[in-house]
Amino acid sequence: MLRLMTSAIVSVIAILAVDSPSMARDAQTVINVMLGELGASRPTGCPGRWCACYMDAVLVRSGLQPLGSNRAVDFAGYGEPAEPGTVGAIMVMPHHVGVVVGLCDNGQVQIVSGNYSNTVALGCYSPSRAIAWRAPVRS
After folding, report:
1. What are phi and psi of 68, to 5 degrees?
2. DSSP assignment letter at 76
């Protein structure tokens, strides 16, 4: 029930926060895939540090262009620039990558990502940890 409510709230926010309707659909598709897999473990074929591999697999399953790298930092050059902290933006950190789904109570951004405590999970991060904010692009 909580997962469904979270998904519905994120859907509304993502549609309102993204400039174009197609970007909103793309971001929402990625978010929906990832939220649907909360609690999942490392996908087959992904290395021990699997957040980037998982992000790439989600992009493919969402019908979007993958990066083709297992390194989180490589996502700094992926897709198009995005506004920092925007719902649906890919938050790139030196050693982690995920998609913004909202804000945490403490003002940090909440992202959904792979390899957060060894599962697909929600986590809170300071926006200052980001080295880039990117938007997914179509294949």
Report:
1. 85, 30
2. G
Nearest to 30 by CA among 91, 89, 118, 81: 89
In order of start, what are the domains of the chain with their CATH numbers? 2-135 (3.90.1720)
Residue 86 phi, psi (nearest 5): -70, 135
Closest to 35 measured CA to CA, from 67, 10, 53, 68: 10
pLDDT in tens, 69-126: 999 999 999 999 999 999 999 999 999 999 999 999 999 999 999 999 999 999 999 9
Q: How far apart, in Å, are the Cα atoms of 56 and each of 2, 3, 100, 107?
A: 26, 23, 16, 27
At 21-77, the pLDDT tens digits run: 445 578 899 999 999 999 999 999 999 999 999 999 999 999 999 999 999 999 999
CB within 8 Å of 92: residues ≥ 6 apart = 72, 73, 75, 76, 78, 130, 131, 132, 133, 134
Residue position matching structure tokens 């519905």: 8
Query: Is pTM beyond 0.90 here?
Result: no
